[in-house]
Amino acid sequence: MGVLRTVREDLQAARGHDPAARSNVENAVVYSGLHAIWSHRVAHRMWAVPALRGPARVLAQFTRFLTGIEIHPGATIGRRFFIDHGMGVVIGETAEIGDDVMLYHGVTLGGRSLAKTKRHPTVGNRVTIGAGAKVLGPIVIGDDSAIGANAVVTRDVPADSIATGIPATIRHRSGKQHEELVDPTTYIDPAMYI
């Protein structure tokens, strides 16, 4: 996939997820979440070359200094990823993030082990993770799920589910209850689930 196509997709994701987004030019200049993901895409390619792992970490830390968003260069991130507000986001080395995922500020995709194994979450496609949420360990967050603001998630979340609370309780998005909570034609804020 070409660099320009990736940049366009990321800009489109920002406009699609943030009702305050006004133009692609403005977003490209002022959105720290976009700056962090673009820098990560470069650092991740560097990380694939063992001789460039040191410089990749330096780039990641410099980006953290500039944006307040820490993404390890080893993390795998899909297409059309968006971080709204950004400050305080941490994404660990073995995290895997699918396509069309949105994170709010203060989200941690962290580990619970010091072992050199898969120790960070795998986040499916079309997942939204609310502000301050902590998703910890080598767990799987299923496609089309939402994690509520400030939730602490330490176990798998099935596809099409909502996880809220500390520790997180999980419920499936189904039937009439889902229709009462969410109008699919409107902007979905994960804080509405708590």
TrEMBL record:
GO terms assigned for molecular function: serine O-acetyltransferase activity
One cellular-component annotation, GO: cytoplasm
Top-level taxon of the source organism: Bacteria
InterPro entries for the chain: Hexapep, Hexapep_transf_CS, LbH_SAT, Ser_AcTrfase_N_sf, Ser_O-AcTrfase, Serine_acetyltransferase, Trimer_LpxA-like_sf
GO biological process: cysteine biosynthetic process from serine
Enzyme Commission (EC) number: 2.3.1.30
Top-level EC class as recorded in UniProt: transferase
Pathway in which the depicted protein is active: Amino-acid biosynthesis; L-cysteine biosynthesis; L-cysteine from L-serine: step 1/2
Keywords on record: Acyltransferase, Amino-acid biosynthesis, Cysteine biosynthesis, Repeat, Transferase
Any single Pfam family the record assigns to this protein: Hexapep
Catalytic activity: L-serine + acetyl-CoA = O-acetyl-L-serine + CoA
Record-linked Gene3D superfamilies: Hexapeptide repeat proteins, serine acetyltransferase, domain 1
Record-linked PANTHER family: SERINE ACETYLTRANSFERASE
UniProt family annotation: Belongs to the transferase hexapeptide repeat family.
Protein name: Serine acetyltransferase
Gene (name only): cysE
